[in-house]
């Protein structure tokens, strides 16, 4: 079936009027679902990503359980460093690990961006399969990591409290850092265009490590690349006569970035739970859709407390130009029933005209 453009989430992303607030959950396909843990016990994380039938099956798991307004293709942001030649292992309990983190002398050895669409064709296959299975019910979100966030993992080699090794490059080796960020930007552009070509109807760029940057570092090493990705992806889609899909940017912890991002061509800006909805709105102005920002820990509360948190969040954001979500990925020990409560509360409260404006 031809993909539809009148889905709730796409309308909200474009700033059109909606009769209820759309909702999805970052990491909605993940370890809090017993059916995900079952698949994970059988296969390695990246094997799942590389096997379109498995990636498709897992993408659909949360959608079959909850009335979510979007699916997000099951993959990881670290497939780009892999495609450029780096080894990444997903260690249970520890997260991603690069056995050989990037050294200064390695930057020149990374593959050319042009290899990315071929190497990651398995993601495009998974998208085609998933769009087909969704039969136009809800849109499929494609995604990628932003260049700084990818660089931070590549240099650090794993998660970090400070990302000081990666940040040291920005101060000590700015020229080389820009070369690396440029390579990642070119790769991400080709990758995101390929996802739309395969059927993704909206794209999210995760700048999850924005929070480690100063406003100055963000302006120098993150913003220009985020901007280039958005502008070039949209231009290429137009040139290729593909749908110019809405784009979401999620600068986690980057309150300082919101005002600058509101002047870019991203349609939607994601916010984490550490900012008041009204402050986020005043920073981005009226012409961007906001996405977020329930504290992932709010899902540990009972039904009444989740509903109360959702009510406050909806009052803060209002109904127009808003997509409900958590302020970051869902935690693995959340009870799936709490997700059902969250999704239902967003839909129910936001379709009662008296509740919110
Ligand atoms: C930084 C980042 C990564 N990956 C991602 C980000 C950006 C979002 C964010 O800030 O969380 C994005 C991502 N990772 C995953 C998805 C799938 C789609 C979805 O949201 O459902 C998406 C969109 C699967 C995953 N990616 C990961 C899991 C769990 C690992 C497992 O199953 O063993 C899943 C389902 C692992 C992962 N992958 C990454 C980390 C740091 C970790 C470890 C943290 C953790 O364990 O939650 C890198």
Report on the architecture of this protein.
GO terms for molecular function: uroporphyrinogen decarboxylase activity. The protein is of the alpha/beta class and 357 residues long. It has one domain: Alpha-Beta Barrel (TIM Barrel), CATH 3.20.20. Helices cover 47% and strands 11% of the residues. The chain contains 16 helices and nine strands. It has helices at residues 8-14, 34-42, 45-50, 52-65, 79-83, 116-119, 121-134, 147-156, 164-172, 174-198, 215-221, 223-239, 258-261, 277-284, 303-317, 336-350, and strands at 71-72, 89-91, 95-97, 140-145, 202-207, 247-251, 268-270, 289-294, 322-326. α13 links the parallel β6 (247-251) and β7. It is globular and about 60 Å long. Coproporphyrinogen III (CP3) is lined by residues 26-31, 40, 45, 72, 74-78, 90, 92, 95-96, 143, 159, 206, 208, 252, 329.
Fold blueprint:
Elements (H helix, E strand, L loop, with lengths): L7 H7 L19 H9 L2 H6 L1 H14 L5 E2 L6 H5 L5 E3 L3 E3 L18 H4 L1 H14 L5 E6 L1 H10 L7 H9 L1 H25 L3 E6 L7 H7 L1 H17 L7 E5 L6 H4 L6 E3 L6 H8 L4 E6 L8 H15 L4 E5 L9 H15 L7
Parallel strand pairs: 1-4, 4-5, 5-6, 6-7, 7-8, 8-9
Antiparallel strand pairs: 2-3
Helix pairs in contact: 4-7, 7-10, 8-9, 8-10, 9-10, 10-12, 15-16
This protein binds coproporphyrinogen III (CP3).
Coproporphyrinogen III (CP3) binds next to strand 3.
Catalytic activity: uroporphyrinogen III + 4 H(+) = coproporphyrinogen III + 4 CO2; uroporphyrinogen I + 4 H(+) = coproporphyrinogen I + 4 CO2
GO biological process, one term: protoporphyrinogen IX biosynthetic process
Family: Belongs to the uroporphyrinogen decarboxylase family.
